[in-house]
Structure formats: structure tokens, C-alpha cells
Amino acid sequence: MTSGPGFLALAPHRSGTASLLADASRRRGMEVTVLPADGVPERYREREDGHYYGGPRFAARVAGPLGVALLEPHDGWLDALPPAFTGRDVRRVPLSEARRRPGPLFVKPPTDKSFPAAVHPDGSSLPPSPPGSGDPLVQISEVVTWEDEFRLFLLDGEIRTGSQYAVYGHLDASPLSGHPQEAAVRAFAHRLTEECGRTLPGAVVVDVGRLRRPGRAPAWAVVEANMAWFSTVYAADPDRALDVVLRSAGPLGLVPERDREFRRARPPAAAPRA
Q1: How far apart are CA 188 and CA 152, in angstroms?
Q2: What CA–CA distance (Å, rounded) separates 98 from 96?
Q3: Exposed/middle/buried for residue 265 (C-beta within 10 Å: 0-12, 13-18, 19+)
Q4: Is the pLDDT of residue 273 over 50?
Q5: What is the phi-psi region of residue 6: left when phi exceeds 0, alpha when psi lies from -120 to 50, beta otherwise?
Q6: Rg for the chain (alpha carbons), in Å?
Q7: What is this structure's pTM?
Q8: What is the pLDDT of residues 148-166, one digit of tens each?
Q9: What is the DSSP string of 118-176?
Q10: Per-residue pLDDT at 270 exceeds 50
Q11: C-alpha–C-alpha distance, residues 99 and 95, integer Å
């Protein structure tokens, strides 16, 4: 293994978060490289000290050559949560079934994010299955109002940093630290990790918010969980968010035993040409 703090490999498509994490990595003495679109240069292969930040489709091509294990929540994590944490009806169904559902309904695509998560007037407005995907499962839920939403970067159940990112569905980023709702967010996250922490990777992003339904008082609920290696920082502390990102997409040989079940499966190797 190469000695030193290692390197952070970024996908070719850059973002504000990628730039913030790159700066935080350099402050730690890490090397930062933007990978070319055609894959991983030879000098970064088999070094055993790489980390990754970027999109899942590019990750599927480069994680193997980089020797990086990508940690992510199980696809069915949200709909398997106790109702006390979801606050709404959430389930996964085949896309063909979702297309027959009356609306309105909120639909989230499979992990490959083949179409945007959005509210649909009914299932007929959903796109067809992507070519070669069969009939993938999609997540559907009733339409609710989120008063405010917060992104939490969790490391072994601890909130390393966080940010408000939306108010009534509109982007409105501000740090969790010092926020009027900070104590309530932390209390809800503590209950979630105490009861359900083992169902999540040790390094993960969880979005939570205050949910409002007709005739009921606002209540805290989980919006969703996502892989830290493809999550926007918003107004969170990038240096502390980096702790979570590096663990979520780091050397395969350093994955803790408890996180092995959360490794993203590698795509099957292409068949050799005749």
C-alpha cells in the first residue's frame, strides 16, 4: 500500500460540492485528481489508498480499478422503517405497477436514478422502464408537505455535520450548527440511530424533516438515505463531511466487518469479444 494520506478521485463532471471536498482533502495533505472520462489512469490503479466522490454510473466503471468499496443504504431501507420514522405510507413496487396507480403520488427511481424523483399526477406520467432493466422496483409514497428538510452526514451513528437544505420544497441552505431546529433534529436523529442504526452503513447521509399532513400537527420523519459519496454538502462543514465521504468510498481492504453488507455490487464483467 502507498504510504501517506491517499488520494481523492473525482468524477469528470464537477460540482460545487466536489470543489469543497477537494479543498478539504488538500488541507489534509491528500492528492486530488479529476478522472478522465475514459476511466482510471494506470498510476492510480492498485494503489490501495484511493477514495471516490461522484456519480453512480461513473462509479460503476471506476470503483474496481481504484480498489474502492462503495457503501450505500439498501434499496428497501426507507419502506422497511417503522412508521414512527417514516410518518407516511412508503413502499416499493415494480415500475409497471406504479404506472397503473392513481395519483397524486411521489415516485423515486431505482438507485441508478434513471429518472428524477418527483410528484406525478398519476402513474401514467412515469417513463417506461429503461432498456435492458426489466421491470425495476421504484419507491412510491403519498404526497406530503415538508416544512423544512435537513441533510445529516452520519459516521458510526454520530452527526459529523449537517445542513438545512430546503423550506417548503424550495432550496434554502443554512448550517445545522446554531439553527433554531438543531436540538430537535439531533434528538430525532438520535432516536433513529439508536433504534435503526444497524440498518445503515457506518458512513451515510440521511435527510430528515418536519412533515405536515392535513389535520395533523407537524412531525419529524425521515425523507430518505443516500450514499455520502454522491451527496451535496449544501451549508454543512465540508471538512467534517469529508470524514463521512472518505469512509463511504474508500479502500476495499479497510471496510469494517459491519459495513460489508452495504458494499455496492460490482456490475458483471463484459463478455470477451469473439
Answers
A1: 11
A2: 6
A3: exposed
A4: no
A5: left
A6: 19
A7: 0.90
A8: 999 999 999 999 999 999 9
A9: EEESSGGGSPPPPTT--S-EEEEE---EEEEEEEEEEETTEEEEEEEEEETTEEEEEES
A10: no
A11: 6
